[in-house]
């Protein structure tokens, strides 16, 4: 017998509220049968899960959106599948289209960190040959690294957009083996989405007096030369208070001679707007959709 035609779950959006909740939306299904069509929501903490009675969190939904707020864990990934069911045939569409969401609390000022994936996701956007190496890091094993690099490179490792509070401070750890006096590494900031970049003064350990590098970074102090030991570097971001910024580690090589690269690890930026934590709501969910307004399957017997 026919099942509904349904494109599956489309979006899972963090409500960013004090209690952990995620908003789910989808487009209406169609069916050749009289219907009515209802929707069931399945949830798991594991990607690639199989929908079943053990992970059913909502059923009998008539609309195309729902808020899930039962038993969600702050900062954890929750995977969802929504299926459409025809009320005449009892068949559902059987899709396995999975969408993930992570509940958080209201935005607050805190410290943004990135340790290349040792304790969370690696968040920098990387131009090749920048990558996350599994070994060779500072405090943990993972590290952002260019590896042994090619000639004429102009490549960056870039943070996502971050909204700064007052007196924000950048710090990170770095080691490097970069052709001395010719190839260069520079830390930069953009406050217009990457349209323009400004050099940050982080206490550069080397000097370059040649200008033939691919990024045309000019003369002055840079990451240039060799120091295989991780050292900490920092810069004030106070001048960009109240702005959305991105930070970039820009690597530039010339037409000859190479080194084994540049390593960046254990980045932190203070006084940044970061997601807060939310409270887990405990208690049973009404699986037939009563709490979202679908009451046709309910009845009341008086005393």
Helix vs. strand class: mainly beta
How many domains is the backbone divided into?
2
Overall mean pLDDT stands at 92
Separation of the first and last Cα atoms:
43 Å
User: What is the gyration radius calculated from CA atoms?
Assistant: 26 Å
> Uncertain runs with pLDDT below 50, 5 residues or more?
284-303
CATH topology label of the largest domain: Jelly Rolls
Task: Label the overall shape.
Answer: elongated
Q: What does this 3D model show about the protein?
A:
With 303 residues, the chain is mainly beta. It has two domains: 110 residues, Immunoglobulin-like (Sandwich), CATH 2.60.40; 168 residues, Galactose-binding domain-like (Jelly Rolls, Sandwich). It is built from no helices and 21 strands. The protein is elongated and about 80 Å long. The two termini are 43 Å apart.
Quick structural summary:
The chain is an all-beta fold and 303 residues long. It has strands at 9-14, 22-26, 37-44, 56-61, 65-68, 78-86, 99-101, 105-114, 125-126, 131-133, 143-145, 154-158, 162-163, 169-178, 184-190, 198-199, 206-208, 220-222, 225-236, 244-252, 261-276. It has 2 domains: 9-104 and 279-292, Immunoglobulin-like; 109-276, Jelly Rolls.
Which characteristics define this entry?
303 residues, mainly beta, Immunoglobulin-like, Jelly Rolls, 2 domains, six-stranded antiparallel beta sheet, 0% helix, elongated
């Amino acid at each position: 017998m026919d099942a509904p035609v349904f494109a599956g779950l489309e979006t899972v959006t963090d409500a960013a509220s004090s209690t952990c909740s995620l908003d789910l939306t989808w487009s209406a299904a169609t069916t050749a049968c009289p219907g009515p069509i209802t929707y069931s929501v399945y949830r798991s903490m594991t990607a690639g899960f199989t929908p079943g009675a053990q992970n059913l969190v909502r059923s009998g939904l008539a609309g195309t959106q729902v808020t899930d707020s039962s038993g969600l864990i702050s900062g954890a990934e929750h995977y969802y599948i929504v299926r459409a069911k025809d009320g005449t045939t009892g068949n559902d569409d059987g899709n396995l289209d999975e969408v993930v969401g992570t509940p958080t609390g209201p935005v607050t000022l805190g410290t943004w960190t990135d340790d290349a994936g040792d304790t969370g996701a690696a968040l920098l956007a990387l131009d090749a040959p920048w990558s996350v190496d599994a070994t060779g890091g500072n405090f943990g094993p993972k590290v952002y690294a260019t590896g042994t690099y090619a000639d004429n490179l102009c490549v960056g490792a870039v943070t996502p957009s971050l909204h700064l509070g007052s007196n924000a401070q950048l710090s990170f750890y770095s080691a490097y083996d970069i052709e001395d006096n010719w190839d260069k590494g520079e830390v930069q900031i953009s406050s217009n989405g990457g349209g323009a970049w400004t050099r940050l003064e982080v206490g550069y350990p080397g000097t370059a007096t040649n200008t033939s590098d691919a990024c045309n970074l000019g003369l002055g102090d840079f990451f240039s030369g060799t120091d295989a030991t991780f050292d900490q570097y920092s810069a004030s971001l106070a001048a960009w208070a109240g702005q959305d910024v991105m930070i970039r580690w820009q690597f530039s090589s010339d037409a000859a001679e190479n080194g084994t690269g540049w390593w960046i690890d254990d980045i932190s930026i203070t006084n940044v707007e970061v997601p807060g934590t939310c409270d887990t709501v405990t208690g049973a969910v009404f699986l037939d959709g009563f709490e979202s307004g679908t009451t046709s399957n309910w009845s009341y017997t008086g005393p």
